[in-house]
Amino acid sequence: MSQVKRIVIAAVCAAIGIVLPMAFHSIPNAGSVWLPMHIPVMICGLVAGPAAGAATGLLAPVLSSLLTGMPAMPVLPPMACELVVYGLVSGALSQRVRTGSTSRDLYVSLVSAMVAGRVVRGVLSALIFSAGSYSLEAWLMTSFATCLTGIVLQLVVVVPIVVSLERAGLVPPRNPEE
Amino acid sequence: MRALSGYVWADSPLHRAPAAAKLAGLLVCVALVVAARGWALLAVCAGCAALAALSRVGWRRALQPVWAMRWFLVVILAMNALFGGGPALAGAGTPAAAAAQGDALSLGPVVLNASGAAQGATVVVRVAAVAVLGALLTATTRPQQLIDGVRVLLAPLGRVGLSVEPVALAVGVTVQFVPTLLRESRQIIWAQRIRCGDVSSRGILRRAVSYVRLLVPIFVSAFRRADELSVAMEARGYRLDDEPRARKGRHS
């Protein structure tokens, strides 16, 4: 995949990351429960690599905050860091993990990214963004309990979307012989 | 795009100020809000109020994000008042003992901690001030001006060898694609409605599931556009792999 295409995919995924939350916000409390902005970031990492994934992870929340006011400025720094890690880890692992099955590769990369992003957000919140007022209970509540629906949604939709994009010929297939 | 961004038409010094200066100012103000304590924080808040008045966007628009976060702020204040601070926590089991320490207010079985409440109020004021500053930026700056502002702020990175062009390209394409994707998403939603899809259902779960069903067509449609755009750019000689051709492509 050329550099130009990677950047355009990162930009388009960032645009989806702005549009999807706007659609989901007609549902009460949807942002923190359904995590609509996480989906395009992970998809971008899986199909276009770590740099493009990280770029989407940074652009989507920052531009969304500037253009639509969501997420609010105080929530932006930890969220941007978390999304950058999602894009970075999903992209780096999708390039390296080769189990012989596309779906298995993608799920390993996706789940690792989901765990890494949450751990990094928790560590940064405890040390920098909410130093002194952040606890393990708060991390478990915000990273897993509140957004359980969003986690299930990501596990259900991200890999099928990537496979659909490969089958539509819009991104290069990982295992051409499959 | 302007409606999306929440830009408010008005003629004020903030509207006329360059976007890069406003972005840099926002960063400085956020640092001040985070660093300030006590009376200094109140002075910073007075500065925010003065900026809101100066911007002529209306108090309603300036306070819109604070209103949107009202329950979040109430929870922060309540959690700090109930569980924050040291002295009242020690006597939490016995409200009378906690109240007797002078730092807590006993309301039946609930003990409110004065120092915790003060800490919570500080956090709430900081969050609200940063939210108002962000709202003032988006209300007084058009999206295209914001992109130009980001480009100007990133320009110094080019002098230390970092390539600014990919970042500028990504920001530009993202902002251009938002209205296009919004339009396409609406078309897909209408198409699903015609096929009896229940996007506007009153049931929250039903509505959410119907949105999830839209994800695959939205992504496939967006990636098709990305594919067409990148092919068109490369066909016109736009390359980022080698700098001379990129420059040539940009001006072609």
Largest sheet of chain B: 2 strands, antiparallel
Low-confidence stretches of chain B: 87-100, 243-252
Helical residues, percent of chain A: over 70%
Number of strands of chain A: 0
Q: In which order are the strands of the major sheet of chain B placed? A: 1-2
Fraction of residues in helix of chain B? over 70%
Roughly what fraction of the amino acids of chain A lie in strands? Answer: under 5%
Our Rg estimate of chain A from Cα atoms comes to: 16 Å
Domain module tally of chain B: 2
Average pLDDT for all residues of chain A:
86
Order of helices and strands of chain A: HHHHHHHH
| CATH architecture identity of chain A | Orthogonal Bundle
Structural class of chain A: mainly alpha
Alpha carbon gap, first and last residue of chain A = 19 Å
So what's the overall shape of chain B?
extended
> Which whole number gives the mean pLDDT of chain B?
76
The CATH class label of chain A is Mainly Alpha
Strand content of chain B: under 5%
Number of helices of chain B: 14
Mass-distribution shape of chain A: globular
Return the CATH topology of chain A.
Arp2/3 complex 21 kDa subunit ARPC3
Structural commentary:
The complex is a heterodimer of chains A (178) and B (252). With 178 residues, chain A is mostly helical. Helices cover 76% and strands 0% of the residues of chain A. Chain A has one domain: Arp2/3 complex 21 kDa subunit ARPC3. Chain A contains eight helices and no strands. Chain A is globular. In chain A, 53% of the residues are buried. By secondary structure, chain B is mainly α. In chain B, helix 4 (39-55) packs parallel to helix 10 (114-140) and helix 12 (165-194) packs across helix 13 (204-235). The longest helix of chain B has 32 residues, at 204-235. The radius of gyration of chain B is 25 Å and the shape is extended. Residues 87-100 and 243-252 of chain B have low confidence and may be disordered. Chains A and B meet through helix 1, helix 3, helix 4 and helix 8 of A and helix 6, helix 10, helix 12 and helix 13 of B.
